[in-house]
Amino acid sequence: MTRLTGVILATLMLLGGCDGATPSDQAPLWRAEGKTMGTYYRVLVANPPAAALTGLNGAIEQQLAEDNHQISTWQDDTILSRFNRYRGTDPQPITTGIADIVSTALRIGAKTGGAMDITIGPLVNLWGFGPEKQPTKTPDAQQIESARARVGLGHLRLIETSNGQWLQKSVPDMYVDLSTVGEGYATDHLAALLEQRGITRYLVSVGGAVLTRGVSSSQQPWRVAIQHATDESVAAEAVVDLQGHGISTSGSYRNYYELEGKRISHVIDPVTGRPIDHKLVSATVIATTALEADGWDTCLMVLGTEKAKQLALQEGLAVFLITKTEQGFTTWMSPQFSSFIISQSDKGA
Ligand code: FAD
């Protein structure tokens, strides 16, 4: 098992690819890390061209701040917060970045019958996972229904022309929440920044999303471990070589709170308007981009184990699921996922 060199991000652990090679065999990894979007980012670079590192730290921080300024609903002066506050139905101008995110989210939402629904903001806020405070008592049916009335992908329209991009809502008090895909987008965007500087061997992560390219400084593949689905253990459930892909995990055992004796998950089912309460506790997706992986993982969490398996097989997705059972946990992976596996816990979760 390779040495753990990173932090545990959401439910992924970054293994810097050090495989026991002696330090002299490998130039040290260049690294940058810090806080962003209410979580953490990390950039590991192997053997960069010398000029590529000039001002790289500052460029990373600035780009993350700009991404935040576009899509955060946790700050009032962002493009998305202004769209959410706007109470009309005229098309509102957005950036190409937001258009890329929304286009991916609408496509995945349509394929999942709306299980992944970025217009879910009123329900996320009602259940206390947005910038507003947590409820002190369980929202009642009437509160859920009035929040649900403001939700639905059919009420959101993305307009893309050669002159620009716009978002248009048909429900004036719609509230778009990009929390489920923002980290994936920021990860891909940081990778593009590195590539523009001629860097071709890197591992980038923002929150629970990771993207790699090339090999680490010891010529070994970048390795990412999927953590056991419990808060207590940092053991790896499986270790994968991303082979230049993106990976993202959505889990229901970290981001939750207790209310009136019930565990309230941050993943909300748009159909019921309530947090999920089934036994699927972690869904990991590997895809060509971190944004794509980040979009699919949450919708699989909404669907639950059996429907998630069906969707993964139907869409040919690389998926790793961890389901809670009476005895502990069971895992399942799609055929596409197994091609990325380097090692898997023999305990089978
Ligand atoms: P995932 O499991 O990938 O998705 C769950 C999140 O998506 C939920 O938290 C909810 O917001 C939303 N969601 C729930 N159900 C659905 C559904 N059915 N369809 C679509 N979306 C759904 N957090 C802070 O505490 N402070 C901050 O300052 C802050 N700033 C942020 C800025 C940005 C730009 C973004 C994108 C997020 C920010 N966040 C902040 C939120 C935080 O980073 C995470 O996004 C959040 O905690 C969920 O992370 P996750 O990977 O567990 O989400």
UniProtKB/TrEMBL annotation:
Pfam family, one: ApbE
Cofactor: Mg(2+)
The keyword Protein transport appears for this protein: no
Record organism: Candidatus Sodalis endolongispinus
Annotated EC: 2.7.1.180
Topology relative to the membrane: Lipid-anchor
N-terminal signal peptide: none
Functional summary from the UniProt entry: Flavin transferase that catalyzes the transfer of the FMN moiety of FAD and its covalent binding to the hydroxyl group of a threonine residue in a target flavoprotein.
Keyword tags: Cell inner membrane, Cell membrane, FAD, Flavoprotein, Lipoprotein, Magnesium, Membrane, Metal-binding, Transferase
Higher taxonomy: Bacteria, Pseudomonadati, Pseudomonadota, Gammaproteobacteria, Enterobacterales
InterPro entries to which the protein is assigned, alphabetical: ApbE, ApbE-like_sf
Molecular function GO terms recorded: transferase activity
Record field: catalytic activity: L-threonyl-[protein] + FAD = FMN-L-threonyl-[protein] + AMP + H(+)
Family affiliation: Belongs to the ApbE family.
Highest taxon of the lineage: Bacteria
Intracellular or extracellular location(s): Cell inner membrane
Entry protein name: FAD:protein FMN transferase
